[in-house]
Specification:
236 residues, alpha/beta, Rossmann fold, 7 helices, 39% helix, disordered N terminus
């Protein structure tokens, strides 16, 4: 009988769901949890775009890190600003924060919890999780992507990433520009009236120049950054 952790994936991915409890018992690995959303991403990207991206970045980092396991992905976040588009699901900031606080509390068998965020609307909840969990003496790292020059939503950046991650899910024949004004000029109205009031197709940016090659470069940079952050955070 095996005595060490055994995953079910052929590539050796260290996924918590593939393990039994005795694989975790006493090992104190770091738990890495992707946090995404289910919300409109224009007429060309799937509703789970943020979830796919967060999951891919988290999995890529866990594959390179030692003493880390990939936790289950949280597929619904705080997406109220997209609520006027059919298909969007949202539990709101308060519920998301409460759920993640309890998740972190339940993870005391781990050396710490890394929350890999894929949706900007989750940030307020994640700040609450970090602050309260830290005050309670738990170790939590919140990571969100920072991509210089990225557009805001369902534009070239996210479309390139999906072309690299799941090209069959991108409806290239439906790609069309949305509102391309800088986010700073739109943010007040987005917060007060939602995305639909600003962009009729739900796109904040222009996806038409997206490429899989660009997506691969972006994804590599995001995984590199997460690996560096976790390594620095976990080093005594």
């Amino acid at each position: 009988m095996p005595t060490g952790p055994v995953g079910c994936d052929d590539d050796g991915m260290k996924a918590l769901g593939d393990l039994v409890w005795t694989d975790v018992d006493g090992r104190r690995p770091i738990l890495v949890v992707p946090v995404g959303s289910t919300e409109q991403h224009g007429p060309h990207l799937p509703l789970d775009t943020d979830t796919r991206i967060a999951g891919e970045v988290a999995a890529g980092a866990v594959a390179r890190l030692t003493d880390c396991v990939l936790g289950p992905t949280i597929p619904i976040g705080a997406s109220g600003e997209h609520g006027d588009f059919d298909g969007t699901l949202s539990i709101g900031t308060d519920a998301l924060a409460t759920m993640l606080i309890e998740l972190v509390r339940s993870a005391d068998a781990f050396a710490g919890t890394v929350l890999v965020n894929g949706h900007g609307g989750n940030l307020d909840a994640l700040r609450r999780v970090h602050d309260l969990s830290t005050a309670e003496g738990r170790r939590v790292l919140v990571w969100s992507p920072s991509i210089p020059g990225a557009d805001a939503h369902a534009g070239r950046t996210e479309t390139s990433l999906l072309l690299a991650i799941a090209p069959s899910c991108v409806r290239t024949d439906a790609m069309a520009p949305g509102v391309t004004a800088p986010l700073g000029e739109l943010v007040d109205r987005l917060r007060s009236d939602g995305v639909r009031a600003v962009s009729s197709n739900g796109v904040l940016g222009d996806p038409t120049g997206a490429t899989a090659d660009e997506g691969k470069r972006l994804l590599t940079g995001m995984v590199d950054d997460l690996v560096d952050r976790v390594t620095s955070w976990s080093t005594p």
